[in-house]
Write a structure and sequence with these properties.
Elements: H1 13-16, H2 24-34, H3 36-56, H4 70-86, E1 96-97, E2 104-105, H5 107-113, H6 130-156, H7 161-172, H8 175-180, H9 185-206, H10 210-223, H11 225-245, H12 259-279, H13 281-292, H14 307-312, H15 331-340, H16 348-364, H17 368-374, H18 388-404, H19 409-425, H20 436-455, H21 463-490, H22 504-515, E3 523-525, H23 535-539, E4 546-547, H24 553-559, E5 566-567, E6 572-573, H25 579-584, E7 587-593, E8 600-604, E9 611-614, H26 627-635, E10 640-641, E11 646-649, E12 653-659, E13 665-668, E14 674-679, E15 682-687, E16 694-698, E17 704-711, E18 723-726, H27 728-741, E19 745-748, E20 752-756, E21 763-770, E22 775-777, E23 781-784, E24 787-792, E25 798-803, H28 808-834
Parallel strand pairs: 3-7
Antiparallel strand pairs: 1-2, 4-6, 5-6, 7-8, 9-21, 10-18, 11-12, 12-17, 13-16, 13-18, 14-15, 14-17, 19-20, 20-25, 21-24, 22-25, 23-24
Length: 835
């Protein structure tokens, strides 16, 4: 038997060449250099956006209100509620809030309105400055999105950090961010999610960091599932493009050829995405189920805009009115992206695949079936082009691939000329932006000059800093102008008129509410006029005011028949200064405007406890379709006169006359009319369904009540029974009876309520809470005219109820399973590396 040949000697190549010692300082410098590009992108993006604020003189750079539409009505109040929750001053917890809507779920609202991780910045400032922190979330989130896009571009192709930083800023300052989502903190997280998921795609292709992939997906979906869903779909497009354009012949970090080698990244992406989404189930599943039980809205079918309007949305600094697409990025990005298809330094297959994918994505925005897919198979309620940031992101990616392969000046000039020609053709499009020509001609010229100087930089190194300064400057200036233009034009729309979220009057209103707070012995209603649709959250009161996409249909069906005003198809409720409703919902204090403008007065009055008792059925003797009869059915006694009215006048000036007991209080309810109502010399506004039951005044000694309604509503009147006259003595007796028979002790937790009641016979306990899904009580719960109630057998003197959002338990189980998978994969990977 022969002897085995000796193994060839191995030579450590690295050992022959002394490597520089990796000193801590050198390592720190290298790590810092990787952050230069993201830091540049962050600074350019946030500074450009804030410069637009300063130019407009808006808060905090001036006296003009900063908040518009839902920013004032939802986001600032919800962030104030988050501040209260973290600082232990909330009436409720993460699952439930007792403030607003007479008690509502809070977990879904948290996931939807407070999911942006930067929302937690508000807890670091005094409560009086929460609105300023909310405004700061916008530039911080946009800057973070730009920084992450810079990192993602570096993973697609290497290149100078400052060039990647500039193009990252064009993404952070895209038209969707400036014109659509700049005031919506949670949607802006989608801008962050897209490059974050792009990085996850690259990790899948490199077959490394699978736990990191799952965590990035989870972070995207924890922030906001709506835009995260769009970003996830975009990531699928990016994965497909990268799989089609990637060299699969082997090499470092590249899988070998073969079916499994090509499918392995897909498997890693699918399992990583699935695990990441499962991790969010404790928030995602309750939100999904809450959406299903929410008051439905009548969203219109998707109607694509005309093609010339759609194309106009791609021009820089263009702000189109209403629900139209804002697809643009700065001129620098557009010119580079256009030169991509002409750049022969890039492989033909790469150019074709990226160009085709980008065109298909933007075309899908105009096709109803694919639009529904982008929006989660739902009809968009509001702007139907909420996924526009996906197209802008792909344009920036293509622009970077073009820049990284040194486009020719001739190609760049040709694309710039085409951009000018397109602007000329589209100049007469509806609401063509006034700043579009300066952005195209001025910004385009400077961008072209900078790129030409950069192309000459190999021979003349001094030109590179000049090109860098021009590129940074043009993106900064053009984007700041675009942001200011979007802000100015949007402010001209009635729905977007900026309002104040903090001033002396709002501060005094808050202090007046705090001065009469008595929760949980009674509720405090912050009254009207409201500074936001969510004043109960913003001012720490417990009235009916609430505005949420998750407001349950059960709440609408409970409050609307009783005479509370509402809008947004029933997802927004307002208060009503009516003592019968106060007695039903245990309101024992109210704030009203003072004699001087901007001042407030508060008053207390007797109110039953949160838990009262009904010993038998009661049916009002008044007409069943009267709001006053419905109130009496819930109260359990007769306290109104509902007289017959005689109608006269004209269609625009209607008169009504009726007779009531002298000294009683007259109330009016006409949800079909918009205008004014006057009686006894006093005039009050009517805003159809937004106006609840309204007090007219004391009935005179004659007993005659004359009402005049001036209205612009065509073909409508006040109905058969608009007038009700309240007997205050009868109401006082009813309140005393409910108090005497009601709970002697009420204990309210974050999402629970318990009560001790006087002993008695068979009866029903009624809780001053709407019977929304999720309540579980010590005895079977049921609805009592829309309120939560529990049957108490004889001898029962205690009850307890706990609210658990639907889907929370299975969501927690799913999240725990996802966490176990993640931990298992992490431990297994660590063991393999050690082996």
């Amino acid at each position: 038997m022969g002897t085995a040949a000796p193994e060839p000697a191995t030579v450590d190549v690295d050992a022959r060449i002394p490597a520089p010692r990796a000193t801590p300082r050198r390592t720190a410098v290298r790590a810092a250099s990787r952050l230069y590009g993201p830091l540049l992108a962050f600074l350019v993006t946030s500074a450009a956006f804030c410069s637009a604020w300063a130019a407009r003189g808006t808060f905090p750079f001036g006296d003009t209100g900063r908040a518009l539409n839902d920013q004032a009505n939802q986001y600032v109040p919800f962030h104030r509620a988050l501040w209260d929750l973290v600082h232990g001053q909330a009436a409720g917890d993460l699952l439930f809030t007792w403030r607003g809507g007479f008690g509502q779920q809070f977990l879904s609202d948290y996931h939807t309105y407070l999911g942006n991780p930067f929302s937690w910045l508000v807890v670091l400032v005094p409560r009086a400055h929460v609105d300023l922190a909310v405004f700061a979330i916008t530039p911080v989130t946009m800057g973070t999105a730009a920084a992450l896009m810079t990192l993602y571009l570096g993973k697609l192709h290497p290149g100078p950090w400052w060039q990647r930083g500039v193009l990252g800023a064009t993404y952070g300052l895209c038209g969707w961010a400036l014109s659509d989502a700049s005031y919506i903190p949670m949607w802006l997280w989608g801008l962050v999610a897209l490059p974050m998921l792009g990085i996850a795609v690259e990790w899948c292709l490199e077959e490394r960091r699978w736990p990191g992939v799952a965590l990035l997906v989870a972070l995207a979906w924890f922030g906001n599932f709506y835009t995260a869903m769009m970003a996830t779909m975009a990531a699928c497009v990016l994965l497909a493009v990268r799989m089609l354009t990637r060299d699969m012949t082997g090499g470092l970090g590249v899988p070998p050829d073969g079916v499994w080698g090509r499918l392995r990244p897909l498997w890693r992406a699918a399992t990583g995405a699935g695990t990441g989404i499962v991790l969010t189930l404790p928030l995602l599943l309750p939100s999904f189920l809450s959406s299903g039980s929410a008051q439905p809205t009548e969203a219109a079918a998707f109607d694509p805009v005309r093609i010339e309007i759609f194309l106009s949305g791609m021009l820089p600094a263009t702000h189109l009115w209403g629900g139209r697409p804002r697809l643009y990025v700065a001129s620098l990005g557009l010119i580079l992206a256009g030169a991509f298809v002409l750049n022969t330094a890039i492989a033909r297959r790469t150019r074709l695949v990226w160009a085709a994918a980008t065109l298909l994505v933007v075309a899908s925005f105009q096709f109803p079936p694919t639009q529904y897919v982008w929006h989660g198979l739902a009809v968009p309620n509001g702007n139907p082009y909420r996924e526009a940031f996906v197209f802008s992101g792909m344009v920036v990616v293509v622009a970077w691939l073009s820049l990284a392969h040194r486009p020719r000046p001739l190609h760049l000039a040709l694309v710039a000329a085409l951009l000018v020609a397109a602007t000329f053709v589209l100049r007469r499009t509806d609401d063509f932006g006034g700043w579009t020509w300066p952005a195209v001609l001025g910004g385009g010229a400077v961008s072209l000059l900078a790129l030409v100087l950069l192309s000459l930089g190999d021979r003349h190194r001094r030109l590179v800093p000049v090109a860098a300064a021009l590129m940074i400057g043009v993106v900064f200036a053009e984007s700041a102008v675009a942001a200011a233009n979007a802000d100015a034009r949007r402010a001209r729309e009635r729905w977007a008129k900026p309002v104040a979220t903090s001033n002396r009057s709002i501060g005094d209103h808050f202090e007046a509410v705090r001065g009469v707070d008595g929760w949980p012995a009674y509720r405090t209603d912050s009254g009207a006029p409201q500074s936001s649709y969510n004043d109960a959250l913003a001012l720490r009161s417990e009235g009916p005011q609430y505005y949420s996409s998750y407001l349950p249909e059960a709440t609408y069906r409970a409050l609307e028949p009783l005479g509370y005003g509402f809008k947004n198809d029933g997802r927004t409720f307002f208060g009503a200064d009516n003592p019968v409703l106060d007695a039903i919902f245990s309101i024992g204090a109210r704030v009203r405007p003072g004699a001087a403008p901007g001042t407030w007065t508060a008053s207390k009055f007797p109110a039953p406890p949160l838990v009262t008792v009904r010993t038998g059925p009661f049916t009002s003797p008044h007409p069943a379709d009267s709001v006053y009869a419905r109130q009496e059915n819930v109260l359990g006694t007769t306290v109104y006169q509902v007289p017959q009215v005689t109608r006269g006048g004209s269609a625009s000036e209607q008169t009504y006359a009726a007779a009531c007991a002298p000294g009683s209080e007259a109330y009016w309810f006409s949800p079909a009319l918009y205008g004014t109502v006057s009686a006894g010399g006093a005039e009050k506004p009517l805003e159809d369904q937004m106006t609840g039951v309204t007090r007219l005044g004391t009935v005179p000694a004659s007993g005659r009540v004359d009402v005049t309604v001036r209205t612009r509503t065509q073909g409508a009147d006040a109905g058969q029974h608009p007038l009700g006259c309240l007997d205050r003595a009868a109401l006082d007796t009813a309140v005393s009876r409910l108090t005497a028979a009601g709970a002697t002790r009420v204990d309210v937790g974050g999402h629970s309520i318990g009560a001790t009641l006087p002993p008695g016979a068979d009866r029903t306990a009624v809780l001053a809470v709407t019977a929304v899904p999720g309540w579980q009580c010590s005895a079977p719960a049921k609805s009592f005219h829309g309120l939560l109630s529990v049957h108490l057998p004889a001898g029962t003197d205690k009850l307890s109820c706990t609210f658990t959002p639907k889907g929370l338990t299975p969501g927690l189980a799913g999240g725990a399973l996802g966490l176990m998978v993640l931990i298992g994969a992490t431990v297994t990977g660590a063991r393999r590396r050690r082996a």
